[in-house]
Write a structure and sequence with these properties.
Layout (H helix, E strand, L loop, with lengths): L6 E5 L4 H13 L2 E6 L2 H11 L3 E5 L5 H11 L3 E4 L15 H4 L1 H19 L7 E5 L3 H4 L7 H22 L4 E7 L6 H14 L3 H6 L7 H12 L7 E5 L2 E4 L2
Parallel strand pairs: 1-2, 1-4, 2-3, 4-5, 5-6, 6-7
Antiparallel strand pairs: 7-8
Helix pairs in contact: 1-10, 3-5, 5-7
Length: about 250
Protein backbone atom coordinates (compact mmCIF):
# COMPACT_ATOMS: atom_id res chain seq x y z
CA UNK A 1 0.00 0.00 0.00
CA UNK A 2 2.68 2.52 0.91
CA UNK A 3 4.32 1.81 -2.47
CA UNK A 4 1.03 2.41 -4.28
CA UNK A 5 -0.42 5.49 -2.54
CA UNK A 6 1.71 8.36 -1.37
CA UNK A 7 -0.96 10.92 -0.55
CA UNK A 8 -4.60 10.44 0.44
CA UNK A 9 -7.40 12.88 1.16
CA UNK A 10 -9.96 11.69 3.72
CA UNK A 11 -13.12 13.70 4.35
CA UNK A 12 -14.87 13.48 7.70
CA UNK A 13 -11.50 12.58 9.20
CA UNK A 14 -11.99 13.86 12.74
CA UNK A 15 -14.04 10.98 14.17
CA UNK A 16 -15.59 7.58 13.59
CA UNK A 17 -14.88 5.83 10.30
CA UNK A 18 -12.90 8.75 8.90
CA UNK A 19 -10.52 8.92 11.83
CA UNK A 20 -9.91 5.18 11.70
CA UNK A 21 -9.33 5.33 7.94
CA UNK A 22 -6.84 8.18 8.34
CA UNK A 23 -4.97 6.23 11.03
CA UNK A 24 -4.83 3.09 8.90
CA UNK A 25 -3.49 4.99 5.90
CA UNK A 26 -0.85 6.83 7.93
CA UNK A 27 0.23 3.44 9.28
CA UNK A 28 0.95 2.31 5.70
CA UNK A 29 3.26 5.28 5.17
CA UNK A 30 0.83 7.41 3.20
CA UNK A 31 0.53 11.12 3.90
CA UNK A 32 -3.09 11.92 4.77
CA UNK A 33 -4.85 15.24 4.32
CA UNK A 34 -7.81 15.05 6.70
CA UNK A 35 -10.81 17.32 6.27
CA UNK A 36 -13.50 18.07 8.85
CA UNK A 37 -15.31 21.11 10.21
CA UNK A 38 -14.07 20.88 13.81
CA UNK A 39 -10.55 22.26 14.08
CA UNK A 40 -10.07 21.10 17.67
CA UNK A 41 -10.97 17.51 16.85
CA UNK A 42 -8.63 17.58 13.85
CA UNK A 43 -5.79 18.82 16.05
CA UNK A 44 -6.40 15.85 18.34
CA UNK A 45 -6.07 13.51 15.35
CA UNK A 46 -2.83 15.24 14.35
CA UNK A 47 -1.51 14.82 17.90
CA UNK A 48 -2.30 11.11 17.70
CA UNK A 49 -1.05 10.40 14.17
CA UNK A 50 1.88 12.80 13.88
CA UNK A 51 3.36 14.51 10.84
CA UNK A 52 1.80 12.00 8.45
CA UNK A 53 -1.56 13.71 9.03
CA UNK A 54 -2.28 17.21 7.68
CA UNK A 55 -5.47 18.70 9.19
CA UNK A 56 -7.71 20.96 7.11
CA UNK A 57 -10.65 22.50 8.97
CA UNK A 58 -13.17 23.20 6.21
CA UNK A 59 -16.51 22.32 4.64
CA UNK A 60 -15.98 19.24 2.46
CA UNK A 61 -18.76 20.32 0.09
CA UNK A 62 -16.76 23.39 -0.99
CA UNK A 63 -15.91 23.08 -4.69
CA UNK A 64 -13.00 25.52 -4.50
CA UNK A 65 -11.54 23.53 -1.60
CA UNK A 66 -11.66 20.28 -3.56
CA UNK A 67 -9.98 21.84 -6.57
CA UNK A 68 -7.30 23.53 -4.47
CA UNK A 69 -6.37 20.48 -2.41
CA UNK A 70 -6.21 18.23 -5.45
CA UNK A 71 -3.91 20.70 -7.21
CA UNK A 72 -1.73 21.32 -4.15
CA UNK A 73 -1.37 17.75 -2.87
CA UNK A 74 -1.94 15.65 -6.02
CA UNK A 75 -3.50 12.81 -4.02
CA UNK A 76 -3.67 9.37 -5.57
CA UNK A 77 -6.42 8.27 -3.16
CA UNK A 78 -9.62 10.06 -2.18
CA UNK A 79 -11.79 8.62 0.60
CA UNK A 80 -15.12 10.45 0.59
CA UNK A 81 -16.52 9.73 4.02
CA UNK A 82 -18.03 13.00 5.32
CA UNK A 83 -21.68 12.96 6.26
CA UNK A 84 -24.37 14.39 8.51
CA UNK A 85 -26.06 12.71 11.47
CA UNK A 86 -29.67 11.92 10.54
CA UNK A 87 -32.74 13.36 12.19
CA UNK A 88 -34.43 10.17 13.36
CA UNK A 89 -38.16 10.42 12.84
CA UNK A 90 -40.83 8.83 10.61
CA UNK A 91 -41.59 10.50 7.29
CA UNK A 92 -44.59 12.51 8.46
CA UNK A 93 -42.58 13.98 11.35
CA UNK A 94 -39.73 15.15 9.09
CA UNK A 95 -39.50 18.59 7.51
CA UNK A 96 -37.98 19.04 4.07
CA UNK A 97 -34.91 20.53 5.78
CA UNK A 98 -34.37 17.46 7.98
CA UNK A 99 -35.32 15.02 5.22
CA UNK A 100 -32.90 16.51 2.68
CA UNK A 101 -29.98 16.99 5.10
CA UNK A 102 -27.92 14.16 3.62
CA UNK A 103 -28.40 15.35 0.06
CA UNK A 104 -26.74 18.64 1.01
CA UNK A 105 -23.84 17.01 2.85
CA UNK A 106 -23.15 13.36 2.02
CA UNK A 107 -24.25 13.41 -1.62
CA UNK A 108 -23.09 16.92 -2.41
CA UNK A 109 -19.56 16.40 -1.14
CA UNK A 110 -19.18 13.14 -3.09
CA UNK A 111 -20.42 14.95 -6.20
CA UNK A 112 -17.99 17.83 -5.57
CA UNK A 113 -14.90 15.66 -5.16
CA UNK A 114 -15.85 13.16 -7.86
CA UNK A 115 -16.33 15.99 -10.34
CA UNK A 116 -13.01 17.54 -9.36
CA UNK A 117 -11.25 14.17 -9.67
CA UNK A 118 -12.47 13.84 -13.26
CA UNK A 119 -11.90 17.45 -14.28
CA UNK A 120 -8.40 18.02 -12.89
CA UNK A 121 -7.94 15.00 -13.35
CA UNK A 122 -6.33 12.75 -10.77
CA UNK A 123 -3.28 10.85 -12.00
CA UNK A 124 -3.75 7.51 -13.81
CA UNK A 125 -3.98 4.69 -11.30
CA UNK A 126 -5.63 6.87 -8.64
CA UNK A 127 -8.56 5.55 -6.63
CA UNK A 128 -11.70 7.23 -5.28
CA UNK A 129 -13.52 5.39 -2.48
CA UNK A 130 -17.01 6.77 -1.77
CA UNK A 131 -18.81 5.80 1.41
CA UNK A 132 -22.40 4.79 0.71
CA UNK A 133 -24.40 2.69 3.18
CA UNK A 134 -26.16 -0.62 3.51
CA UNK A 135 -29.28 1.54 3.84
CA UNK A 136 -28.94 2.27 0.11
CA UNK A 137 -30.04 -1.32 -0.50
CA UNK A 138 -32.65 -1.85 2.20
CA UNK A 139 -33.92 1.65 2.99
CA UNK A 140 -34.03 3.44 6.33
CA UNK A 141 -37.55 4.69 7.12
CA UNK A 142 -36.58 6.71 10.19
CA UNK A 143 -33.65 8.67 8.74
CA UNK A 144 -35.36 10.88 6.18
CA UNK A 145 -33.49 11.05 2.88
CA UNK A 146 -30.41 9.23 4.19
CA UNK A 147 -30.93 6.00 2.24
CA UNK A 148 -31.74 7.78 -1.03
CA UNK A 149 -28.76 10.12 -0.60
CA UNK A 150 -26.49 7.11 -0.12
CA UNK A 151 -28.08 5.37 -3.11
CA UNK A 152 -27.25 8.42 -5.23
CA UNK A 153 -23.61 8.00 -4.18
CA UNK A 154 -23.68 4.48 -5.63
CA UNK A 155 -25.04 5.81 -8.91
CA UNK A 156 -22.41 8.54 -9.04
CA UNK A 157 -19.68 5.96 -8.56
CA UNK A 158 -20.92 4.14 -11.63
CA UNK A 159 -21.30 7.32 -13.67
CA UNK A 160 -17.78 8.42 -12.75
CA UNK A 161 -16.29 5.03 -13.58
CA UNK A 162 -17.90 5.21 -17.03
CA UNK A 163 -16.56 8.71 -17.65
CA UNK A 164 -13.07 7.68 -16.51
CA UNK A 165 -13.13 4.80 -18.97
CA UNK A 166 -14.50 6.93 -21.81
CA UNK A 167 -11.76 9.51 -21.33
CA UNK A 168 -8.99 6.96 -20.76
CA UNK A 169 -8.19 8.44 -17.34
CA UNK A 170 -7.58 5.13 -15.56
CA UNK A 171 -9.09 6.40 -12.29
CA UNK A 172 -10.82 3.66 -10.31
CA UNK A 173 -14.05 4.46 -8.46
CA UNK A 174 -15.25 2.18 -5.66
CA UNK A 175 -18.19 2.38 -3.24
CA UNK A 176 -18.25 0.90 0.26
CA UNK A 177 -21.59 0.20 1.95
CA UNK A 178 -21.15 -0.19 5.74
CA UNK A 179 -23.91 -1.92 7.66
CA UNK A 180 -25.55 -0.39 10.72
CA UNK A 181 -23.26 -0.22 13.75
CA UNK A 182 -23.52 1.47 17.15
CA UNK A 183 -19.81 2.38 16.99
CA UNK A 184 -20.15 5.66 15.11
CA UNK A 185 -22.16 8.85 15.26
CA UNK A 186 -24.55 8.08 12.41
CA UNK A 187 -24.98 4.45 13.40
CA UNK A 188 -25.45 5.26 17.07
CA UNK A 189 -28.29 7.63 16.23
CA UNK A 190 -29.81 4.94 14.02
CA UNK A 191 -29.56 2.30 16.73
CA UNK A 192 -31.29 4.56 19.26
CA UNK A 193 -34.06 5.42 16.82
CA UNK A 194 -34.81 1.88 15.69
CA UNK A 195 -34.57 0.45 19.22
CA UNK A 196 -37.20 2.94 20.34
CA UNK A 197 -39.39 2.16 17.32
CA UNK A 198 -39.25 -1.56 18.16
CA UNK A 199 -39.93 -0.90 21.82
CA UNK A 200 -36.70 -2.52 23.03
CA UNK A 201 -33.71 -1.14 24.88
CA UNK A 202 -30.50 -0.24 23.08
CA UNK A 203 -28.55 -3.29 24.27
CA UNK A 204 -31.26 -5.67 23.06
CA UNK A 205 -31.31 -4.06 19.64
CA UNK A 206 -27.53 -4.13 19.38
CA UNK A 207 -27.52 -7.87 20.11
CA UNK A 208 -29.38 -8.35 16.84
CA UNK A 209 -26.60 -6.59 14.92
CA UNK A 210 -23.81 -8.96 15.96
CA UNK A 211 -21.11 -9.36 14.81
CA UNK A 212 -20.70 -5.60 15.30
CA UNK A 213 -18.93 -3.63 12.58
CA UNK A 214 -16.06 -1.54 13.99
CA UNK A 215 -14.40 1.58 12.56
CA UNK A 216 -11.14 -0.38 12.34
CA UNK A 217 -12.83 -2.96 10.12
CA UNK A 218 -14.06 -0.20 7.82
CA UNK A 219 -10.55 1.26 7.70
CA UNK A 220 -9.06 -2.14 6.89
CA UNK A 221 -11.62 -2.58 4.11
CA UNK A 222 -10.73 0.78 2.58
CA UNK A 223 -7.01 -0.04 2.58
CA UNK A 224 -7.64 -3.50 1.13
CA UNK A 225 -10.01 -2.37 -1.62
CA UNK A 226 -8.01 0.70 -2.59
CA UNK A 227 -4.85 -1.37 -2.89
CA UNK A 228 -6.39 -4.10 -5.06
CA UNK A 229 -6.79 -3.13 -8.74
CA UNK A 230 -8.90 -6.24 -9.24
CA UNK A 231 -11.44 -5.39 -6.56
CA UNK A 232 -15.16 -5.24 -7.28
CA UNK A 233 -16.73 -1.80 -7.75
CA UNK A 234 -18.99 -2.03 -4.68
CA UNK A 235 -18.78 -3.86 -1.36
CA UNK A 236 -20.98 -4.34 1.67
CA UNK A 237 -18.93 -4.32 4.85
CA UNK A 238 -20.20 -5.71 8.14
CA UNK A 239 -18.85 -7.30 11.27
CA UNK A 240 -18.40 -10.57 9.36
CA UNK A 241 -16.26 -8.93 6.65
CA UNK A 242 -16.53 -7.77 3.05
CA UNK A 243 -18.99 -8.96 0.42
CA UNK A 244 -19.24 -7.67 -3.18
CA UNK A 245 -22.62 -6.15 -4.01
CA UNK A 246 -24.39 -8.29 -6.60
Amino acid sequence: MSDSFKTAVVTGASRGFGRAIAAALVATGAGVVGIARDEQELRAVRDELGDGFTPVAADATDEALAQRLIREHRPDLLVLNAGATPHMAPLHEQTWETFSRHWHTDTRHVFTWTRAALREPLAPGSVVVAMSSGAALGGSPLSGGYASAKAAIRYMRGYAADESERAGLNIRFVALLPQLTPLGGVGSAGVDGYAARQGVDRDTFVEGLRPILTPDQVAKAVVEIAGDPGSAPEYLVGGAGLRPVD
